[in-house]
User: Fold these one by one.
Assistant:
Number 1:
Amino acid sequence: MTAVGIDAIEIWSGNLKLDLPETFASVKGEDPDKYRKGLGLEASSFPDVYEDIVTMGANASKRLMERKGLEPDDIGRIDVATESAFDHSKPVSTYIAGCLEQVFEDDFRHANKGERKFACVSGTQAVDDAYNWIRAGRNRDRAALVVATDTALYERGDPGEATQGAGAVAMLIDEDPDVLGLSDEQGFGSMDETDFLKPNQQFPSVDGKRSVQVYLSRMREALEDYESVAGRVYEEDFAYAPFHTPFPGMVRKAGLLAYRHITRNTDIEDQLAEEIGRQPREEEYDSHDEYEEAIREYMDALKGTERYRSWYADVIEPTLTISSQVGNWYTGSVHIARASALMTAADEDRNFEGESLLVASYGSGAQAEIHAETIQSGWKEEIEAIDIDQQLENRYDLTFEEYEQIHNVHDLDKDVEVDAFTQPEGEFAFTGWGRMNERK
Ligand code: CAA
């Protein structure tokens, strides 16, 4: 069967940067290492005055279409995933299509447009929808454009403030893709939760510590569910494991959980037993609490082993490079984790066509999804075309006072005007409601 998957990726970062260990930590009176080492973050991306989820998504899409030589007629579906939507009726994809129509001098009348919502996992859900649409044969030889775009802003003073970010990832989903083929098998862990929500409000209400536990529980369930359809996952099966990355410190916890899971009842567990003992089995304990405590102790010991550290350095660490510089992009987060890994592989001139990635997405509220992806022959050329390093380098570095100003600009409850810190160049810029014009 012909592969269906990701044919091209483009990334668009907000044009502003807030340095976390220096600028943010010093005003908050906190140790820079809380950000560098604890959360694993160097900086956040922010949208300038003229940027929003539409302009960032449209800019990423425009670049993708131009690079692939696509016209609107080549695209039969535009889905946007976001948890920062400003319109409760019209999907953000219609705004993005409107921007693109200005440039491509043709329309997307024929294209089915929609908006997906389930917190950060909805970017992957939109990719799934496109995959299913193509597999069902409803695409009439057209590809799908999936855009994950968010301004992940928290209320000032909220613990989540340190994990803000803004940016968009555009992905072309097609048959016979150049970059990655998606697996038919998927695993889910899903449960009604209230750890992070936005009921008719711009900024999230978050129970941060609980959200970390919910993420880990749903991920474990999704991994077990994935194995129930795809078979056991072993250490050697995957070149990289991109996970949803609200901040890299979260992925350190998820990576440890995944490694314990994939090494249980294997030779690796046997080898590690000499150093740290065997993994606790629930039947060996009088109560669930005792078992949980034993697991915690095992995980602490596992974290310190050379075997785990080496796996983490090879399989997880390369997924975190963009995230550590941009913060949380919500729906785009797992997709920049995947891109980070592939960019590392390209830098290392790695030849890994046919190898696999284990991709784990998560959305608060809460749902985790896990599937595999197989590297296709054109991956390197596509990945080398992404210029995110240059974009991050070019961001305007905000002082704390400027950060407060730009946060106020994007706070819908505040009516403030601030001059832009950068000038849009050859990109879509927000110039007022109903007028999303391109500027040269
Ligand atoms: N040196 C080294 N490490 C330090 C340190 C220092 N000086 N100071 C603190 N740290 C470490 C802490 O030990 C902690 O690490 P561990 O979790 O491994 O113990 C880490 O830095 C963070 O410190 P705190 O727990 O004290 O940080 P906090 O309470 O200020 O906030 C948070 C952490 C609750 C996650 C907060 O950032 C938050 O609310 N974030 C938003 C919610 C979120 O991202 N949740 C993730 C799961 S939900 C999800 O993924 C969906 C989504 O996108 C939101």
Number 2:
Amino acid sequence: PTQDRVFNFAAGPATLPENVLRKAESELYNWRGAGMSVMEMSHRGKEFMSIIQKAESDLRKLLDISDDYAVLFLQGGATTQFASIPLNICKPQDPVDYIVTGSWGDKAFKEATKYCKPKVIWSGKSDKYTGIPDFNALDQNSDSRYLHICANETIHGVEFKDYPTPAALLVADMSSNFCSKPVDVSKFGIIYAGAQKNVGPSGVTIVIVRKDLIGDAQEITPVMLDYKIHADNNSLYNTPPCYGIYMCGLVFEDLLAQGGLVEVEKKNIKKAQILYDAIDESNGFYRSPVEKSVRSLMNVPFTLEKAELEAEFVKEAAKEKMIQLKGHRSVGGMRASIYNAMPLAGVEKLVAFMKDFQARHG
Ligand code: PLP
């Protein structure tokens, strides 16, 4: 029963919209008269074809993706894309630039060193990843094949609000803010995202890639990483993550029904605002380390002035059915992930709890 559900602030896999889960439940055993679950269908049958095609066309509507781009539903997580990107669009000697605003950008950079010649042109590490560079001061290599950014750093809570102009192509990891707000896809060569934060269960990785970049992969590229193979086969070269794609499709329908990403962004701004306000107005009891102008709407890390209270905070919150508030093991503190599917009521409950906790322990 839905009244038993918790408010789940996990960074991913993360909470999904309740109405999407209910819809999936209602067609779990018999998908729309097919007499079987989506999990049991042939990925080449007409039923699943209709599911994947609808998912793609709804995603195209949501992000206003033009025909110049292919939309791929892949496996392997965003982590696999750290390798796929250089393998598909670089030669081994090609220089490429990385802006590193957190741990994920750093991982992407390190993986790329195996397949091309990446350079970190800006790193926020010395400031503990709390900011975004001044775009005018970026020293991009004019021969760089692409400029890679992580649009939202899930662990550090740093989000690009605007994008740098690349020397050639802009490539973005949008795993943790995918479909949380409108994005001008035409500014990017490649956008990629694991589904398990904003748009579905883990197991699906979405890649939006400009079609003219497809078809020139390095010779060593495994078939499973080659965009051309997947684009030519409409993401059905091998058995895709069928059920995950179906769930993503239900989420896309739900986002469209909410009025699309302009409306979704308004809700996300409101949720983030009340949480950051609670932190900023706590007289230092809670602190957000991130520079105000680039604070993430999705992942809100914060610390307690009295660090010794952090375990108690997590424990008491869990008792009140608010779970997964512990910060990433690499940075400590707290983190509240408030993706699209986190209701306003969840954030309001967290803020009320934070005030009460401060009153009792401040
Ligand atoms: N990039 C970002 C921004 C992430 O948050 C994550 C996972 O949390 C990843 C990449 C890695 O994604 P996956 O676990 O799907 O490989």
Number 3:
Amino acid sequence: DWADLNDIVGAAVERTGRLARDHTIKVDIDPGVLLLCVDPVLMEQVFFNLLDNACKYAPPGTVVKVWARRTPNYVTIEVIDQGPGIPPEASEKVFDMFYRVDHGDSKAAGTGLGLAICRGIVEAHGGTIKAEPGLNGAGAAIVIHLPQSHDIDGLAARISADAEPEGT
Ligand code: ATP
Ligand code: MG
């Protein structure tokens, strides 16, 4: 289905609720990325898991950014935080089920499933997801690439034309 990335991210942000009360979540989605061919419910789960992690592992008062841009064949979406980051040697393992990094913070409870679920959903859409260092090498950036080779602008125009009442 065609879904609006702003709606998906907005719903995920709303779902983080009080989890995110100590963080500032900034959403920077390029207007060219409005429509995505994704399952909106599953993709909301991806962003919820990523925002949940960012708010769980990054200290209070820091900024969490959701950023999205489009190239002709791909959409790139990143969730970037200012926390401890993911060590390079763990950047693949964190996507394994039940794998957890010890950040020395016993309060950050979890099962170790969140990122494994994200990878399953993104790969089901033909995309990739990886963990990288955040801005200036600090914090974590989870980078998603989704293939979007369709003529999204043309499709958006057709959808809005279809939405016109008959006879207009
Ligand atoms: P769950 O999501 O199932 O509640 P979890 O958060 O531990 O538990 P994942 O979301 O799969 O599991 O993350 C795996 C591990 O990767 C985490 O335990 C954490 O150590 C590390 N990690 C994930 N996201 C971040 C992040 N934004 N910053 C630092 N470490 C992270
Ligand atoms: Mg998690």
